[in-house]
């Protein structure tokens, strides 16, 4: 990463320490990623042809990928997708310089911490079978072809699923939170999704967290499938909203 | 897709070292991370709205009828035995294929949207 300065709009991915080196990372709009440095800090930026670019799915993936690459080398503060400054000079003048102390403190506070995301999804046949087995009232409603009966059955199933989801989500989050510094639970889930949550975990506790998630996946085998992603940059735990 | 990043043997938990698709990435980088208000943000609003749409669970007669049909179709003896065995065996299960299909459906919806401006 050469610390060159240009006057083109600068798309910013995140902020890291000035000594972090990325090997030929490619960013939004296929532009190469470089560092704009100020003191001990570096903003990871790439040049945009204009500030009027529309995001494509590839650009979203690139944003995450650049942060992931930086994170593999050092702590990094991820910016939300889409932040553009008028020029490299503005990145320094309007971000790195006025927020220097805060940025340094935030980066230091995240040193050695990683984000792990957990997504738990019901196997639809598995969970529906469990509901029918556990609830005689629902089992008794099965088999009627009368539309009114079907609506009653379906509504009872929907309610049972919602109750079960609340219990399962609480259990999963409580169990994994024991190993985390902070937790962020998504409040919107899809139909057969149990929970999506992000956990801020000490790097040294990643294996233990993995083992705990593995335990949960074994306990719920056949009914809930678990996906663990990470270690990731702390996307969910850098929640500052700064007006300039 | 499932990459074991740890040394431990595991057939139960699916692991990925980094986000593996657009739906995962959207969760991480839209409305997350440091947000600096007063600058130009490049357009992503279409993607956001469609993603959220796809995730809202709608309580409706249609949903109830679909649930009823699924429950009526269940063959309880088979489902239990097969479901557990397939997951233990770890590969090519019906359940996994179904979930994969659902996830890809969501991704396609998201990917198909065009951004419009947002600041």
Description:
The complex is a heterodimer of chains A (244) and B (119). By secondary structure, chain A is of the alpha+beta class. Chain A has two domains: 10-109; 113-237, Alpha-Beta Plaits (2-Layer Sandwich). Helix content of chain A is 39%, strand content 25%. Chain A has seven helices and ten strands. In chain A, strands 1, 2, 3, 4 and 5 form a five-stranded antiparallel beta sheet that branches. In chain A, strand 7 and strand 8 (193-202) form a beta hairpin. Chain A is elongated. The longest helix of chain B is centred in the C-terminal third of the chain and has 18 residues, at 94-111. Chain B is flat, with a radius of gyration of 19 Å. At the A-B interface, strand 1, helix 1, strand 5, helix 4 and helix 6 of A face strand 1, helix 1, strand 2, strand 3 and helix 2 of B.
Q: Would you report the number of β strands of chain A?
A: 10
- The average pLDDT value of chain A, as a whole number, equals 92
Sheet of most strands of chain B: none
Rounded mean pLDDT of chain B is 63
Low-confidence stretches of chain A: none
Into how many domains do the coordinates of chain B divide?
1
| Individual helix count of chain A | 7
Weakly predicted, low-confidence segments of chain B: 1-7, 79-119
- How much helix, percentage-wise, in residues of chain B? 40-55%
Strand content of chain A: 25-35%
> β content of chain B, as a range?
5-15%
Taken together, the total number of domains of chain A comes to 2
Output the CATH class name of the largest domain in chain A.
Alpha Beta
Which fold name fills CATH's third level, the topology of the largest domain in chain A? Answer: Alpha-Beta Plaits
Count of helical stretches of chain B: 5
Overall 3D form of chain A? elongated
CA-to-CA gap between the ends of chain A? 27 Å
Please summarize the sheet with the most strands of chain A.
Answer: 5 strands, antiparallel
Give, in order, the helices and strands of chain B: EHEEHHHH
**Helix and strand composition category of chain B:** mainly alpha
Rg measurement of chain B, Å: 19 Å
